[in-house]
Structure formats: structure tokens, C-alpha cells
Design brief:
11 helices; alpha/beta; 14 strands; six-stranded mixed beta sheet; 33% helix; six-stranded parallel beta sheet
Length: 358
């Protein structure tokens, strides 16, 4: 099995490391740039500790592949990225490059990366969803139960929940297909959100039809018993600066594929209980999705922080005990909240989803 080094590690990849035993390669080492304030250990779901390292060159010695991961809230300088890339190439390491946000950076990297070291096709799952003539006209219906994982905001643990649900249902013996809200999920046996969903040259209608055909091709090819769809971005703009794609992905995906139920992830706040009913109502009215399950993240949006020019705000970590206490209080009135830090609550969530879909 390939020994993979993840770089640059950030909090956005914590769920990846926690679920590393489900990956199709060994995620053996993680390296965070010095100055990012990340140190210590990560406890994965099997109870093993993974050290957050800072010496890239030293960690490189024990790995066969380097996963150059996407930036989170912090940005990796291009000079530092290219320095690490050249070092990995010189040491003949395979490169799994999933940084898509910066087109200029990606173009430079593709020129530097020898084709024989490009490991992207080793992990990315592909399915043929093309039609004769390249035109998409028909919306297909689905026979497989579908659960959407959505969020009112970004940074609300959507990806963590997609990995958790896939793992838990697979453990129970179900055949699960999953389309991730991210573009770097092939290493977990998931289909990544297809690149055409970010394509500015395609119309909304084209994206809806293509995504419908994309998921239908997965259903025909794999014949799963459950399909999990993760939706990128937030369901609604947070404010005039933090637009969260204006719910574009939610609109397109909800029109392309009718789900049977939805799991809604929210960043932490001291919500009144009415928040959950109102959120369900808004999602139902805008996107025809029935929210049956609520998850609360241990991250909280910092309303005091100044928003940067690109609309990026700051999220603060919240003590997990504080989150659990709030969920316990909310559950007295609203029963479909789940504290997934607890194994009992994970089982309750999965059981409730099965009962709902049955």
C-alpha cells in the first residue's frame, strides 16, 4: 500500500486524518507549514495518534506519495509549494495534486510534474456519463435511496459527515456510493464533485442536466443500496461579503437529483430551538429538501473578524464539551439532533436514517 504524506495539513483536513483507515492508501504522515500554529497529535477513529510534523524533507523519506492538499483558511505561498514539489519530484515520489483553486499555480505545477509521477488517476474515480452528440436533454429518476449532506454555512463539518456516513453504512454491510462535496475524495473511494460544476462557461441548465446524468451513471454502474451526495458551499449567503456561492450548488444539485432526506450541518452558535425549525422550513421552500437530521460543528463563525477581499471570514474552534452540552439541551425539545462525538449517537443517527428511508 502506498505511504502518503499530506501537505500542507490544515484543520480542513482533520476529518481526512481521523477517517484515514477508510482510505485506499496509508495516510502515514502529515506536515503543516511552520507558522500555521498547528502542532501536537491527531487521534484517528481507530484510536491511533498521528503527529502533526513540520519537517517536510524528513517526513518525505518514509513516503512513496505526496498529497498536495488544497489550502484552507490560510494560504500557502507559491514559492513554498514549488520548493516542496521540486523536492518531492527529485526524490521520485508520486504526486497526488488536488489544489484546484489557483489556476495559475496549477498550470505551473503541471509543467513541472513528470507524467509518470502524476498519481491523480491512481485515486480519482471516474464514470462515463457522456451522451450521443454531447447534448443533455432528459432528467433521469433514481431507484436508489439518496441522502443529501448540506449546510447553511461553510466550515460546518459536511465533509466529516460524508466520510462518517459512508464508513458507518459500509460497516453495516450496505453498498454505498458517494459523491463528495469536494474535488479530492477519490482516495476514500468516493466520487469527487465533478469539475464541470465549477465551469463558468456552462449554463445552470447544462450543469443540472449533466449532474443528473453523472449520478445516474454511478447508479447504473455500481448498483448501490444508498447514495450519499455532499453539496459544496452554503445554502444561503451569510452577508453581503460572505456569499457562500449564493446557494448555487444547492439549487443545481437539488434540481438535478431529488433526495429522499437531508442531513443539515450548522456551525456552532447559541441558537434558540426555533432555529432548527426555521432552517428546515427555508431548505424545504428553496430546495425541496426535507431535513430529517441536524449536526452541529465544533467551529463557530467569528462575527467580529474583518472579512477579507475574497470574502473569507474566520472560524473559531469551540470546546467539544460545550457543543455536547448545547446539543443535550436542544434535544429536550428537538429530537433530531445528533452529537457524533459519541459512538451511541452515531449509531442512533444511522438507525434513524435507515428507519426514515425504509
Amino acid at each position: 500500500m502506498e505511504q502518503v504524506l499530506v501537505y500542507p495539513y490544515s484543520k480542513e483536513y482533520e476529518a481526512v486524518i481521523k477517517n484515514r483507515k477508510s482510505a485506499e492508501a496509508s495516510l502515514a504522515r502529515v506536515v503543516a507549514p511552520r507558522g500555521w500554529g498547528l502542532s501536537g497529535d491527531i487521534l484517528d477513529n481507530s484510536g491511533e495518534r498521528v503527529e502533526i510534523e513540520h519537517n517536510f524533507e524528513e517526513a518525505l523519506k518514509d513516503c512513496t506519495t505526496v498529497w498536495f492538499a488544497e489550502d484552507g483558511l490560510l494560504r500557502l505561498p507559491m514559492e513554498l509549494l514549488l520548493e516542496k514539489l521540486v523536492l518531492a519530484v527529485r526524490n521520485k515520489k508520486k504526486i497526488y495534486y488536488t489544489r484546484y483553486k489557483n489556476a495559475e499555480e496549477r498550470e505551473i505545477v503541471e509543467k513541472l510534474l513528470p507524467p509518470k509521477l502524476n498519481a491523480e488517476n491512481d485515486y480519482e474515480r471516474k464514470v462515463d456519463f457522456t451522451v450521443s452528440g454531447g447534448e443533455y436533454h432528459t432528467l433521469y429518476e433514481f431507484k436508489t435511496p439518496i441522502i443529501n449532506v448540506t449546510g447553511l454555512s461553510e466550515n460546518s463539518d459536511k465533509y466529516k459527515m460524508q466520510l462518517l456516513l459512508k464508513e458507518e453504512f459500509t460497516k453495516l454491510g450496505y453498498k454505498v456510493s458517494a459523491v463528495s462535496s469536494r474535488r479530492d475524495s477519490g482516495i476514500f473511494g468516493m466520487y469527487s464533485m465533478p469539475g464541470f460544476m465549477w465551469e463558468n462557461k456552462l449554463s445552470v441548465t447544462d450543469k443540472i442536466l449533466r449532474f443528473n446524468h453523472y449520478v445516474k451513471a454511478i447508479e447504473k454502474t455500481e448498483r448501490p443500496e444508498l447514495i450519499i451526495l455532499g453539496i459544496p458551499g452554503g445554502a444561503f449567503p451569510r452577508n453581503e461579503y460572505r456569499h457562500q456561492y449564493f446557494g448555487e450548488f444547492h439549487f443545481e444539485i437539488s434540481r438535478a437529483v431529488l433526495c429522499d432526506c437531508a442531513l443539515l450541518c450548522s456551525s456552532f452558535s447559541e441558537y434558540p430551538v426555533s432555529y432548527f425549525e426555521e432552517a428546515e422550513q427555508r431548505i424545504r421552500q428553496m430546495y425541496d429538501m426535507e431535513v430529517g437530521f441536524h449536526i452541529i460543528s465544533d467551529k463557530m463563525y467569528d462575527c467580529r473578524d474583518k472579512v477579507t477581499a475574497d470574502g473569507t471570514g474566520t472560524y473559531l474552534s469551540v470546546d467539544s464539551g460545550m457543543v455536547s452540552d448545547s446539543i443535550r439541551e436542544w434535544k429536550k425539545t428537538k429530537g433530531n439532533l445528533y452529537d457524533t462525538a459519541s459512538e451511541d449517537e452515531k449509531r442512533r443517527l444511522v438507525d434513524d436514517i435507515i428507519n426514515s428511508l425504509s
